[in-house]
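Technical note accompanying the year-one report. For the benefit of new consortium partners, we illustrate the data format agreed upon in the data management plan: each record pairs a sequence with a structure-token string. No post-processing was applied to the example shown here.
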Amino acid sequence: MPNQNPPMRSLGVCYYPEHWNDNRWPVDLRQMQSLGIRYVRVGEFAWSRFEPAPGKLNFDWLQHFLDLAGSEQIKVIVGTPTATPPKWLVDSMPDMLALDENGLPLQFGSRRHYCFSHEGYRNECRRIVIQLAEAVGNHPSLFGWQIDNEFGCHGTALSYSTAARGRFQQWLQKRYQ
């Protein structure tokens, strides 16, 4: 006999509140709720909105969005913003840009333009993620975290930088001691 009670399914979407005026958010969230959307993912590309200048942090807008989502019974998955470090950060550490097979740096303006192995990038990621977690980690609308965004997409997994070579050599030494 077929199952009369199929498993519950939930629907979620990606949403980028940082690109919209905040008076639009309640309208969009109500529409999401009316369509049966129960989860929304935000934040993975918002580092420059969280920190528009070095040390100038602003998570208030995200907390406001989480409040609004909660009022519509929508749970939020927050993405760590590490896939898109802001321009000011890249400018302060230009050697964090990944190098292609010809030794040419990737350019700022998309995502995944940095070298995963660059110590300064890694430290800054750790810093912003800790601050983000401290700011919204206990919010009742927070459902979970997405760590970064699409590792290795668009041919960006490899870097031929000094940092990448050094990290690879360290890995080899540990692996083949």
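Partners are asked to follow this layout when depositing records. DSSP finds six helices and four strands in the chain.
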